[in-house]
Amino acid sequence: MRLKILVGTIAVAVVLAGVTALYAADRYVAYLFEREDPGCVADSAVEIDRLTRIVVPVLPQQGRSQVDGDSGCAPPESGPSIAVHVDGASVRQLTGRFRSTGWSPVSAARVAEETVEGDILVAGVEKHAGDHLVEVFVTKMARHPDTVLVTAWFG
Known about the structure:
The chain is an alpha+beta fold. It has a six-stranded antiparallel sheet with strand order 1-2-6-5-4-3, sandwiched between helices. The protein is elongated, with a radius of gyration of 25 Å.
């Protein structure tokens, strides 16, 4: 009887150790695949700077936040992008500033792709900068009615 209890206890311990090891291995593999590639981050820093130099001069200095750059290197990789909040501006004003400097409006279908629930108004413009197409989307969000979000990335 004691032998059966001992064998049963050992079997339960082995099963628990195996489950714990599998869980730890699964978490480690997930960690490896979710972290950003350092080479990608370094390359995207240059592209974020380039986007900033192209987009930010068009925006008004009054009410403009600092540029928030995203490497886009975390899975799924999406490429570098920037975001800037502009207080006290309208979507029409900001897209007008871009259009007056040679930017073209993007298609309604493209705007629809970038519109998410909670957006009141979204407009987009694009322009070729060297060998890249730069896309800029200007969004008025319901949760921040006095602020316009400007996002940009290479298309």
